[in-house]
Design a protein that fits this description.
Residues 37-179 form the AAA+ ATPase domain. The protein is α/β, with parallel strands linked by helices. The protein contains 27 helices and 15 strands. The strands form 5 sheets. It has a 5-stranded parallel beta sheet, with helices on one face.
Length: 596
């Protein structure tokens, strides 16, 4: 007699045999008892959870010679034929290979005829989501109003691909993943029946790797028992199924915590040399790190995963933060996706695990998001300033010399270190200057300009150069002719020959800009005081005007003046806007000259 696979031999025969789907078996049994039999059912759920088996049980319950009954006898002629797939009134259709409109039209033709052997004609359409749009449309009317002795059962693993028009015509039942406990209990029952001695941990390992599917669990058990004549142990199951040993996962995790790249590369090589797959390594690493994350959060491991050494879990969970574990799991999932297309999966895995070893990466994973943003902003500002200073050093020749005093802070260092640099170079190096003696770092103790030694003219020249560096051309044009007269009591006195330049400088935008530059360069608050140059006033008073001009001062909004002058071209508007920025927004409307 030919050997029958365990998943076929142990297929459920009635609702009581269904594992892990009590909510469905109870509901269907009650519907049959009360005579509330639907004309169409939609069974959805993961593979190997009992969808097709339930469909056949329902077909037997409707066509049993003692039924319809919630407990088919599995002994009568009808039940036996359904179990053997020879019953004339049960049609099992694979939609993956019969997905076109022609197959559905044939189905519609056969629906009209009365049952041959039983009371109901049952159409089981497996993987129904594979039907084409035309096939679904052809099925709609028949599915909505089939003959009273016809029942449709649609099964799918991807219910979201089934049109809502089809779903609305069916009673939907969602099959859930079977728990590890239920799978292990069923495996114990089967191994006891077939006379195979197994360790509990061996069956637990099979149940975990079945991933919620009873059919997968029976296939794995079949594979293990076929290759082992002795007692089935956890080690034997691990070897047969290519499962990574816990010890290897623990070593890799410890190496990541210690930033030990060499140990990681060696462990990967050892795993691959035993014939284990890269994808299996990544999958089990994610499971192990999930255990660490769950234990760190709940201080227990009660979830549906295989047993691990609690001492190791506790020790390793203390080595990482929640953010680090999340990053680690995300990294292996990304690597798992990349290995499917990578020509060298080993390199992909090595890169992913080596990346997790870098202390800088691990440190950043623990920093809150707002602090990360602040760190990045500080880095950007620092880089921008360095680039600006490099340009300044290259463009400007030395104008004057100044001394930068640096005081050593570490033991055994020189008390005072002094360097003479060009002023521009000193200003650019000030934010990051470091003077080293052996391995210790000195600290800056003096600002860019010592205000006690500098005069008003030298400080003002520094401010003008900074305006040029910052490309503040309108402001530079306004103040470059001003004469610094004195610097005392925190005030820098500037003399102007033109009143409109003085008035423009006193406005808040230019004043704040200049005072900010002075503070940056001296380290002290310096207030600008603008005065008129007396010599310029005397010269202008000597000239007596021959005629008086009648003028009217009209305040004009400078934000609207450009829009109002439609006759100006683009270049003229640009010059006018620059003039407003420099001279102010008071426009003088000059009338015809008249004698006073």
């Amino acid at each position: 007699m030919a050997y029958v696979a365990l998943y076929r031999k142990w297929r459920p025969k009635d609702f009581a045999d269904l594992v892990g789907q009590d909510h469905i078996s109870h509901t269907l049994a009650q519907a049959i008892k009360t005579g509330k039999i639907g004309h169409a059912y939609l069974f959805s759920g993961p593979r190997g959870t009992g969808k097709t088996s339930t469909a056949k049980i329902l077909a037997k319950a409707l066509n049993c010679e003692h039924g319809p009954t919630a407990k088919p006898c599995n002994k009568c002629s009808n039940c036996s034929k359904i179990n053997n797939n020879t019953f004339m009134d049960v049609y099992e259709i694979d939609a993956a290979s019969n997905r076109g409109i022609d197959e559905i039209r044939d189905l519609r033709e056969t629906v009209k005829y009365a049952p041959v052997d039983g009371k109901y004609k049952v159409y089981i359409i497996d993987e129904v989501h594979m039907l084409t749009s035309e096939a679904f449309n052809a099925l709609l009317k028949t599915l909505e109003e089939p003959p009273s002795n016809v029942v449709f059962i649609l099964a799918t693993t991807e219910v979201h691909k089934v049109p809502t028009t089809i779903q609305s015509r069916c009673q939907r039942y969602d099959f859930k993943r079977i728990t590890k406990k239920d799978i292990q209990k069923q495996l114990e029952k089967i191994t006891s029946s077939i006379g195979v001695v197994c360790e509990d941990e061996a069956l637990e390992t099979i149940a975990v790797h079945a991933d919620g599917g009873m059919r997968d669990a029976l296939s794995l058990l079949d594979q293990c028992t076929a290759q082992s004549d002795e007692k089935l142990t956890k080690e034997k199951v691990t070897e047969i199924l290519g499962i990574i040993a816990h010890e290897s996962l623990w070593k890799i995790t410890d190496a990541i915590a210690a930033h030990d790249i060499q140990s990681i590369l060696q462990e990967i090589a050892d795993i691959l040399n035993t014939g284990k797959s890269i994808s299996q390594l990544l999958t089990e690493l994610s499971w192990h790190w999930r255990s660490l994350m769950v234990y760190k959060a709940a201080q227990t491991l009660t979830l549906d995963m295989y047993k691990e050494d609690f001492a190791v879990i506790k020790r390793q969970s203390d080595s990482f933060t929640h953010e680090q574990l999340t990053t680690m799991i995300k990294t292996v999932y990304e690597a798992l996706g990349q290995t499917r297309w990578s020509p060298q999966p080993r390199v992909t895995v090595e890169m992913a695990l080596m990346k997790l070893c870098y202390p800088y990466e691990n440190r950043e994973a623990t920093v809150p998001t707002n602090e990360k943003i602040n760190m990045l902003e500080a880095k950007i500002m620092h880089l921008e300033k360095l680039l600006s200073n490099i340009g300044q050093q290259a463009a400007n020749a030395p104008v004057m010399q100044t001394k930068i005093s640096v005081k050593a802070t570490g033991p055994g260092q020189v008390e005072n270190v002094k360097k003479s640099l060009p002023l521009e170079a000193a200003e650019s190096l000030l934010p990051d200057i470091k003077v080293q003696k052996n391995t210790e770092t000195a600290s800056l103790v003096q600002p860019a300009i010592d205000i006690t030694d500098a005069d008003a003219s030298s400080i003002w020249q520094v401010a003008l150069r900074e305006l040029k560096m910052q490309h503040k051309i309108p402001a530079l044009a306004c103040v470059e002719k001003a004469q610094p007269r004195s610097l005392q009591n925190g005030q820098l006195v500037l003399a102007f020959k033109a009143s409109f330049l003085k008035a423009r400088t006193e406005r808040d935008d230019y004043r704040n800009l200049l005072e900010g530059i002075l503070f940056e360069k001296t380290g002290q608050t310096i207030r600008l005081v603008c005065i008129m140059d007396e010599s310029a006033g005397a010269k202008s008073s000597e000239k007596a005007p021959a005629k008086q001009t009648k003028t009217a001062t009209v305040p004009v909004d400078k934000t609207k003046i450009i829009v109002a002058d439609d006759d100006l071209n683009e270049e003229e508007q640009k010059r006018l806007k620059n003039a407003v920025n420099i001279f102010g927004n008071n426009i003088v409307n000059e009338d015809k000259e008249t004698d006073k």
